[in-house]
């Protein structure tokens, strides 16, 4: 599929060790079994409470790491711009703007369980436009992947490359999105590799990626994925039904 008609944002996987693996020592010895369970549960509860409340921890209820400098999430619809990477009919009545990180596992889940069905049901029918905006904050591979997708966009292949990145996630900063792999993806997708490689090596789109990330913070994005449906924020990889409910409400206005 050619993306010539394209106008061009992590919810981290928060893992808490299971209670039976938590060991709390007193004076060099492990606690007895009942006390260990109680103490372990108390430590987990305290970690969750302070982690959720701390400025460098998790925002309350979302399980998403807070991005430095992000304001509080808006409670009312906000005015968000589509940016440069937009899929769908320009006259579609519903605009979905997603801030995501290509390394974010929950962004990968949103891609598979929400974006693909919405593309088939709503975007293809001209009812919805979907805008992708970068919120690249998980490391250098996030920035490199975002720049690579924009390099692919020069050849009308942003969405093809976008899909390929999410399909090839393999952990954060584990070389899944090394420069060599990003170039390999371009070759496998049939892009002009000389043009793509020159673009990527030049860091041509680094400022654009950072500008998108900062724009997300300005409208309340503190982690990924964060999605706005006609300005109504949905945080995290919520079920498809949550999205279709809001989409249908907007279509029926």
From TrEMBL:
It comes from the Bacteria. One of its GO terms (molecular function) is oxidoreductase activity. Residues 66-252 form the Thioredoxin domain. InterPro entries: Thioredoxin-like_fold (IPR012336), Thioredoxin-like_sf (IPR036249), Thioredoxin_domain (IPR013766). This is Thioredoxin domain-containing protein. Belongs to the thioredoxin family. DsbA subfamily. The chain crosses the membrane at residues 31-52. The keyword Transmembrane applies. Keywords: Disulfide bond, Membrane, Oxidoreductase, Redox-active center, Signal, Transmembrane, Transmembrane helix. Gene3D superfamilies: Glutaredoxin (3.40.30.10). PROSITE patterns: THIOREDOXIN_2.
């Amino acid at each position: 599929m050619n993306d010539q008609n394209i106008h061009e944002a992590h919810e981290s996987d928060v893992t808490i060790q299971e209670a039976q693996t938590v060991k709390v020592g007193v004076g060099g010895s492990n606690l007895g079994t009942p006390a260990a369970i109680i103490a372990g549960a108390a430590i987990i509860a305290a970690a969750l409470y302070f982690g959720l409340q701390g400025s460098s921890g998790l925002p309350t209820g979302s399980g998403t790491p807070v991005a430095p400098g992000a304001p509080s999430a808006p409670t009312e619809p906000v005015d968000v711009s589509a940016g440069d990477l937009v899929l769908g009919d320009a006259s579609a009545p519903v605009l979905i703007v997603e801030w995501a990180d290509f390394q974010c596992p929950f962004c990968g889940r949103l891609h598979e369980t929400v974006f693909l069905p919405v593309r088939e049901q709503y975007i293809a029918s001209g009812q919805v436009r979907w805008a992708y905006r970068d919120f690249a904050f998980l490391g250098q591979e996030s920035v490199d992947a975002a720049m690579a997708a924009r390099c692919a966009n020069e050849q009308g292949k942003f969405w093809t490359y976008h899909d390929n990145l999410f399909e090839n996630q393999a952990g954060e900063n584990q070389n899944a999105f090394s420069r060599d792999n990003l170039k390999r993806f371009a070759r496998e997708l049939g892009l002009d590799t000389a043009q793509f490689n020159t673009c990527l090596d030049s860091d041509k789109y680094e400022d654009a990626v950072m500008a998108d990330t900062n724009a997300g913070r300005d409208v309340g994005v503190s982690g990924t994925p964060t999605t706005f449906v006609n300005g109504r924020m949905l945080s995290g990889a919520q079920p498809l039904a949550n999205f279709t409910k809001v989409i249908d409400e907007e279509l029926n206005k």
